Amino acid sequence: MAQKTIRQALHEALAQEMRRDPRVVVIGEDVAGGAGTGGGRDAAGGVLGVTKGLITEFGEDRVIDTPITESAIMGMAAGSAVSGLRPVAELMFSDFLGVCFDQIYNQAAKFRYMFGGKARTPLVIRTMIGAGRSAAAQHSQSPYGIFTSVPGLKVVIPSNAYDAKGLLIQAIRDDDPVIFCEHKLMYDLKTEVPDEAYTVPFGEANIVRDGDDVTIVAFARMVHYAAAAAETLAREGIDCELIDPRTTSPLDADTILDSVARTGRLVVVDEATPRCSMAADIAALVAEHAFGVLKAPIRRVTAPHTPVPFAPGLEKLYIPDSDRIAAVVREAQGYAR
Amino acid sequence: MSITPITMPKWGLTMTEGKVVQWLKPQGGAFAKGEELLEIETSKITNVLEAEEDGTLTRIVAPEDTTLPIGALLAVVAPETTPAAEVDAFIAGFVVPEPSEETMAEAEAGPRTVDIGGRSLRYLERGAGVPVVMLHGFGADLNTWMFTQPALADRHRTIALELPGHGGSTKDVGAGTLDALADAVEAALATLDIDRAHLIGHSMGGAVAAAVAARRPDRAATLTLIAPAGLGPEINATFIDGFVRATRRKDAEAVLRLLVRDPALVSRTMVEDMLRNKRIDGATAALETIAHAWFPGGHQAVDITASVAGLAMAVQLIWGADDRIVPETHALAARVPVHVVEHAGHLPHMEKAGAVNDLIRRFIAA
Amino acid sequence: MQLNREALLKAYRDMVTIRRFEERVQDEFSKGNIPGFVHLYAGQEASAVGVCSHLGPDDHIASTHRGHGHSIAKGCDVVGMMLELFGRKGGLCGGKGGSMHIADLDHGMLGANGIVGGGPPLVIGAALTAKTLRNSNVAVSFTGDGGSNQGTTFEAMNMAVVLKLPAIFVFENNGYGEYTGAEYAVGSRDIAGRAAGFGMPAVRVDGDDFFAVHDAMREATERARAGGGPSAIEVSTCRFYGHHSGDAQLYRVKDEVRKLREEHDCLKNFRRRVTDARLLEAGDLDAVDAEVAALIDQAVAAALAAPPPEPETLMTDVYVSY
């Protein structure tokens, strides 16, 4: 077993599944790159290099470069999934859901129900989320809450390389449409990743850290900020239990509720905007099912209800950080009626 | 007698720090060798540190609930007549030793793999000397020896070998039978140039070790069987089935708790490690194959009583008094010396590591 | 005309089935037996049947909100369809899809579609499956003149050309997108020409003439199956009913529909052609008419008798596993 980055873990998952199953294809803009240029194929390998080299092994019939037409990409992926392939389509930036949402929201997500249970749509949509690169309002959002709100879609948000590989393999083998969110600032994060293929089940949260004082639920990059905050707080005598749901649909409500039953305090940390969000959803879950055990109001640490700003200073203010998380946890811990 | 420190131990490959959970002896209290001094929690497991000699817990330095690196000073043991100022000076002057280059190199080396005819088995090697080979039980991996291997590695070349279907080893288990597993072990030992070794086997690994010893008696110096399979028909089918089936944390935890007397010993990381092993492609199918070959219909199909009775080398049995997987009464069938470890379940080598390590060291040395 | 007697009878049976099905749906809708809204295909039968007569069960089609005709032509069970429209247990989609989402993947029918322009991207997906698995299947998207204006349709056509997919884009130009004329909404007034602009062979055919559609589709299908890439067919056709059942059709001039029924009825056309050419006797066709009438009666009786879906099916089949 070796230390691998999230980028390597995802690449390995794709390559191993493509070797295992000839029905697995990769579809998207520049997944190989270089088509129709003097430079030749595989010039890109995905904008952040995840699919680099796949075309060499699997050829252009299975690593399919497309025009920049997201509706056609998503629809083609959905149509091929329902007719016998297991496509992994790339929606380069999740912000681009705006130009192709119908194919995901009205088509792929609803086939099975609308068609009375006859459809299987083993479709994976890999997409980048997250702010922090001054990519501004149309390339920095984290809209997993929108996807999670759609019945029929599964939504995966890995926070480390081990989970990324196991969850992507699970997603490819899953018979339902899966939105697989990759935080664009996390591709170089390393952890131990087995060389073999393995799956991480959906709907089972990872307990990143045990603690009895405050439950923190965080997603993607916020898991790492929350872990840093928890370290600081531990030195102050506040023991945080940090939960990374890993998938928001299905959501492991039991792990969150079990934890809050012990701690009586909940802080949800979410890089997305706060309205109608995962943070709101989990707050509602706990308010509804664990009101009686709460020792303090549920708190949310999120981006503000604004588009993502461009200027680095403004963007830094936009993204929740460890200090903000720690401050809110302290307030929750110190709350007195 | 002089002032001696009690320091944070290193348990297992990945431990870098430990948390003092609870002192089990009061400051100023006397203790005898083997008595439990304190509970330490690592990311893998919570365990007790036992006294290596008789003494008095002169000064507790590490309060409960603090996390400290390996080698950090936890307490001071000194003769009763030692002046307090000397104890203070000892504490003030204590320096956490830097890990030796050798330890660092070993830690970096980590487990390796050995090829046996196209299949690979993972093993962890530590130390030098007369070889000791350790074989884990059903569903386990080399981490089961995290307390045993360090205690033997100072005098022996220790090899914790993972059986086919387990840990980082091949998921190709063939028929999964006793012979299939023993073949794999023999092949691995040959490739690793181990002509003769002390064999230690736990549970299913105990039966495999006995089979290897029976096949080539010249190659087994001694045989230590810890709660071995194969000495009677009973087996906890709930454990076997549950282990094979579990995919979720809660189910895995419930299964692992059957292994130990004190359920608090089962840490979240132990559960996570079990699930990570099981998530590898082919792992669950491999366990199913083995379970079917060894424990069909909830009973043990493997019988090693005859081969154990016929062994010429020294054989010892170690069994936890509260074993809920394989009943301790099976020990009678083997007709060899039995050491029953009190307050331990199916994992006496982890639950009462100090006592079991002593038993093994003395047995091997004799 | 290279069709044998059996093929001609099947084509006629499918077209009549669609016509009688739609007429009956209109009746039953008026009686209040069918919830929601229905969009009727009557008048356009030659298109669906002319196209689908070249397809096998492993070829795929995707349809529009006006999907009953395509479903029948592709082999979907008529009784199951009627149950579905009535929202009953045993319907083709268990009563969870209704008229606008009639689908049957067992017959390669990827669904009627509530979204104009929703189908073409899905069709290139089915075509991609065929290309990847090298099974020489084809996939056909039915789109109206309205859907021909959608960006999704353009994207799908471009992708099909770029990837040389075995996809066929059939544009049924019935002159209206909802209550607005194609004359107004289709800027170039030339859907086939626009498709050709994407780089694929495209033809316009007379939708009153089953044989014209059939011939054009033969060429397109042969090309696609042989790896020659996509084609487009614009079918000029007409809609005998409104956009939906109950549409007052205030946008249509007086007698327009009466004239269409008299002069542009593809069924009458077919009957005349085959009997004039002595390929079939009137009696053969009458027998089919009677057979179909009985089938439709049986379908409606079954639908009226069927219970509603079980309440617990509300929660089933959202996911394969969750």
From TrEMBL, chain A:
In the UniProt record, the signal sequence range is none
Look up keyword Metal-binding and say if it applies.
no
Recall the taxonomic lineage recorded for the source organism.
Bacteria, Pseudomonadati, Pseudomonadota, Alphaproteobacteria, Acetobacterales
By its UniProt entry, which SMART domains does this protein fall under? Transket_pyr
Read off the Pfam families from this record: Transket_pyr, Transketolase_C
The molecule here is called Alpha-ketoacid dehydrogenase subunit beta
What UniProt keywords are attached to this protein's entry? Oxidoreductase
- The yes or no answer to whether the keyword Plastid is present is no
Which superkingdom does the taxonomy of this entry point to? Bacteria
Q: What would be an example GO MF term here?
A: oxidoreductase activity
Q: Report the residue ranges that make up the Transketolase-like pyrimidine-binding domain in this protein.
A: 4-189
From TrEMBL, chain B:
Question: Which UniProt keywords are present, listed alphabetically?
Answer: Lipoyl, Transferase
Which stretches make up the Lipoyl-binding domain? 3-78
Read off the InterPro entries from this record. Answer: 2-oxoA_DH_lipoyl-BS, AB_hydrolase_1, AB_hydrolase_fold, AB_hydrolase_sf, Biotin_lipoyl, Single_hybrid_motif
- SUPFAM superfamilies, alphabetically? alpha/beta-Hydrolases, Single hybrid motif
User: Does the record's keyword annotation contain Secreted?
Assistant: no
Gene Ontology MF terms in the entry: transferase activity
Short name of any one Pfam family annotated for the protein: Biotin_lipoyl
Q: Which CDD domains match?
A: lipoyl_domain
Presence of the UniProt keyword Transferase in the record: yes
The record's GO CC annotations read: membrane
Question: What superkingdom heads the lineage?
Answer: Bacteria
Identify which cofactors the protein needs according to its UniProt entry.
(R)-lipoate
Q: What is this protein called?
A: Acetoin dehydrogenase dihydrolipoyllysine-residue acetyltransferase subunit
- Source species: Rhodopila globiformis
TrEMBL record, chain C:
Q: Which residues form the Dehydrogenase E1 component domain?
A: 13-312
The record's SUPFAM superfamilies line, in alphabetical order, gives: Thiamin diphosphate-binding fold (THDP-binding)
Q: Which domain of life is it from?
A: Bacteria
- Asked whether the UniProt record includes Zinc among its keywords, one would answer no
- InterPro entries in alphabetical order: DH_E1, PDH_E1_Alpha_Subunit, THDP-binding
**Cofactor(s) needed by this chain:** thiamine diphosphate
Swiss-Prot/TrEMBL GO biological process terms: pyruvate decarboxylation to acetyl-CoA
Q: Which GO terms describe its molecular function?
A: pyruvate dehydrogenase (acetyl-transferring) activity
Q: Which CDD domains match?
A: TPP_E1_PDC_ADC_BCADC (cd02000)
Asked whether the UniProt record includes Oxidoreductase among its keywords, one would answer: yes
Q: Which reaction does it catalyse?
A: N(6)-[(R)-lipoyl]-L-lysyl-[protein] + pyruvate + H(+) = N(6)-[(R)-S(8)-acetyldihydrolipoyl]-L-lysyl-[protein] + CO2
Listed Pfam families: E1_dh (PF00676)
Keywords from the UniProt entry: Oxidoreductase, Thiamine pyrophosphate
Briefly state the protein's biological role.
The pyruvate dehydrogenase complex catalyzes the overall conversion of pyruvate to acetyl-CoA and CO(2). It contains multiple copies of three enzymatic components: pyruvate dehydrogenase (E1), dihydrolipoamide acetyltransferase (E2) and lipoamide dehydrogenase (E3).
Q: What's the protein name?
A: ABC transporter substrate-binding protein
